[in-house]
């Protein structure tokens, strides 16, 4: 026996608007209560990652930064970064990401020169910072976030990240 296929309807169209809103609110409340568990990248995996070319993760980072540039990252406030070498070191993952801000946005930097600012933390702490689960000051004063080099540049980066309106990324 052959049954005709039913048209696919998204589940949200089957629910009344008020119920969709309630479900969305409950979902957001539950997500807000979630915390990133304490973890570190396993050492064998970090040793492998440290030996791999860093161009791919660096390109992923600069692509994300360029997508945010002008939208949630105010370019005029970042002018002091222009031409300056920046390095993100993900300590437990063996990643070292070198980049800079140029006229056309962020780009990978040649890793041979000493960067002006190095920011180091674990994967978990960078995630907590990005998700605003923890702030940079807390991580810095608990020595889980390290800044080396030009401290004025580090302060600029920290203040810019603190000022970002992450809600601008939410879909309407």
TrEMBL record:
Key words of the record: Ubiquinone biosynthesis
Database matches in Gene3D superfamilies: SCP2 sterol-binding domain (3.30.1050.10)
Record-annotated SCP2 domain positions: 75-162
Pathway note: Cofactor biosynthesis; ubiquinone biosynthesis
Name the UniProt record assigns to this protein: Ubiquinone biosynthesis accessory factor UbiT
Function statement: Required for O(2)-independent ubiquinone (coenzyme Q) biosynthesis. Likely functions as an accessory factor.
Annotated family: Belongs to the UbiT family.
Pfam family, one: SCP2
Gene label: ubiT
Species: Azoarcus sp. (strain BH72)
Signal sequence, renumbered to the chain: none
